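Kindly review this record before class:
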Amino acid sequence: MDVEAIINKYSPLVHGLASKLSAPGVEREDLFQEGLIGLYGAILAFDKEKEVDFTYFARLCVERRLHSVIKAALRQKHAPLTGYEPLLPNIRDTKDTPEDALLGLEGVARLEAAINTHLSEFERKALSQKLQGYSNAEIAEKLGCSKKSVENAMRRARKKLLDNLENF
């Protein structure tokens, strides 16, 4: 039996196992795909010499894969990446006319004024480095502080800017 036939035969099992689980930010289709990856791993790792039923082994591999995905989602390790909102809108992508572009530039001027008015010197330095593409670790090294200090400064800066730009 080839791999495709095995996957077709056991995909209802994978679908059943995936449909019983959920986690914030994880869609059922993603769980099903992860389950299929677990099934594929079972196909590759199965040893006929061990005298273990393949269905049992496949179920175990799929369940382990699904539980790993659920645990990872609950850790929210990648929440900063998935919850990303741009600090500045991309003016070229959102504006259709020169007037719209000018209004966008006025928004940038307001943002610059808010940065200079409401952010501390450390927050301005950290933000400047971030806008140049440096990672938090690189910024921390350049500014001689901890990565956590940079993360906190970025969080404070974002909140201050969002709060104060609403008032403009």
